[in-house]
Each structure stands twice: as C-alpha cells, then as structure tokens.
Amino acid sequence: QFIVSAARAAGAELTLRPEAIRPIPARAWSAKAKRPLNSRLETSKFRSTFGVSLPSWQEGIRHLIATLHEEGRL
From CA 10, how far away is CA 4, in angstroms rounded? Predict the structure, then answer.
C-alpha cells in the first residue's frame, strides 16, 4: 500500500489503488516452511560497528520513487 501510494503521489499513472492491496496473516497462506513471526532485519550491531545511521524502509522507497521519477521511468 505504501509503495503504490507513494508512486501515485509522485505522478505515476497506476490503475492499482492502495486499498486494493490487503494484508493476510501468514497462517492464511499455506507454505511448507515455517515462517518466523518477526522477520525484520536487526541492524543495531551493524550500525554500532560501522557508526552509520540507516534510513527507514519508507525513506528508501521514497528515494527510489524520486529517482525513478527524475529518470523518467515512473
């Protein structure tokens, strides 16, 4: 939903609307492998070791969409 909303806000002509994307719980999707309840990447050790500040995933998406828009690919 976030990606579609951000792309549309940047001027992308999409027929897909954010509200058409609906999350489903993992238990509703049959998969042979068990999936973790929390699969987010823990970056605190990386950040403290290298002294870097990582942007949020939302900021990364905004940056990607802005780049695509500037390059005329959106």
Answer: 10
- The closest of 6, 25, 2 to 65, measured between CA atoms, is 6
| Residue 15, burial from CB neighbour count under 10 angstroms (0-12, 13-18, 19+) | exposed
Instruction: Output the CA–CA distances (angstroms, integers) from residue 40 to 7, 19, 47, in the order listed.
Output: 24, 24, 15
**DSSP at 51:** T
Q: What is the pLDDT of residues 27-54, one digit of tens each?
A: 787 878 887 778 788 899 999 999 999 8
pTM: 0.72
Q: Which of 65, 50, 48, 72 is nearest to 7 (CA)?
A: 65
